[in-house]
Every structure is written in structure tokens, then in C-alpha cells.
Amino acid sequence: MQVDWHGELLAQMEFYWDMSLRPRLEGLTDEEYLWEPAPGCWSVRPQPDGTATVDWAHPAPDPPPLTTIAWRICHVAGLCFDLRTSSHFGAGDWSPERIDWPRTAADGVAYLDRTYTAWRDAVREAGPARLMERTGDAEGPYAEYPFATLVLHLNRELMHHGGEIGLMRDLYRVRTT
């Protein structure tokens, strides 16, 4: 049996996006987006100059802090999709320090929509042969891995954090004050 792995990877990503994550983002409010259910959450933080930054540390603390929906959306949109689209299909000049991170739910969802679409379309246009090429220096210690490994990794990131976003929305809905 011949398997179209390129088509399967795209179908997995698109099915999860269309059937699970994207519908769960409908009606997301700014209060939910920035809700911190526990002390010390990582989130998107407004800065005195009117921009916003995302909390992070490398290496992350152990255990890592709980993160807000805003942080999770920005992680997937920025560090997964935007960074990788730039690194593998664009100028390679993406930097988290140059991003004015979305401070509202509408802007966060729009950023995620935009970066997901750019990544999906770039992977689609790259075609099946690209899956067997090495990821290259942009992926640091994973440079020798095939590009298919990176696509699988970003699919997992989308599903992992998407599930967390759904759970955070459920917890927000049933929270007590």
C-alpha cells in the first residue's frame, strides 16, 4: 500500500484545527484570554511603552508555571508557527523580542489564525519531497532530523496546547469566585 505521508500530515493538522481547536476559540473573551487561575501564571504582559511581552525563561523552572490561554495561544502562534514559517520558508528573521504580543482575545485568535494558515500553506506548497530533507541549522540540535519530524512536532504542539486551551475554557466557565 502506498501512503501519501504529506497528505496525511496535513490532514491530521487540518482536522484537529477545523474540528477541535478553532471551534473552541469562538467567543473567547479578553477576561478568559488573560485569566490567571493560580498565582504565578505566565501570560502576556502589557509594557509601559504600550507593547506587550510574553513571560518565559530558558530553561523553564521545574515545575513550570501554569500558563494562561493568552500564553498558550502566543506560544503556538509565535514560537511554533510564526518562527518556523520564517525559518523554513521566509527570511528567517523572526524574533520573540520584536513581537508586540496580542493583548486581547480577538488579536490573539487573529494572530493564531494568520500563523496557522501561513504554516499550513507553506507545508502544503513544499510538497512531499520536502518531508525527507533535513530541517537544517534553524532547528539547532535537531538539524539532521527530517522535515517530517518538525511537521509532526508542530502537529503535537498544536494538539497539546489546543487541548489545554479547551480545558482552560471549561475551567473558566465553571469557576467559583
Adjacency order of strands in the biggest sheet:
1-2
Helical coverage, percent range: 40-55%
Strand content: under 5%
Stretches with pLDDT under 50, minimum 5 residues: none
Number of helices: 5
Number of domains: 1
| Gap between N and C termini | 56 Å
Radius of gyration: 17 Å
CATH topology: Four Helix Bundle (Hemerythrin (Met), subunit A)
The main pleated sheet reads as: 2 strands, antiparallel
- What class would the helix/strand composition place it in? mainly alpha
Q: What order do the helices and strands follow?
A: HHEEHHH
CATH architecture, by name, is Up-down Bundle
CATH classification, class level: Mainly Alpha
Overview of this structure, please?
This protein is mainly alpha-helical. The protein has a single domain (5-174), classed as Four Helix Bundle (Hemerythrin (Met), subunit A) (Up-down Bundle), CATH 1.20.120. Helix content is 54%, strand content 3%. A two-stranded antiparallel sheet has the order 1-2. A hairpin with a 5-residue loop joins strand 1 (44-46) and strand 2. Helix 1 (5-24) runs parallel beside helix 5 (147-174), helix 3 packs parallel to helix 4 (105-126) and helix 3 (69-89) runs antiparallel to helix 5.
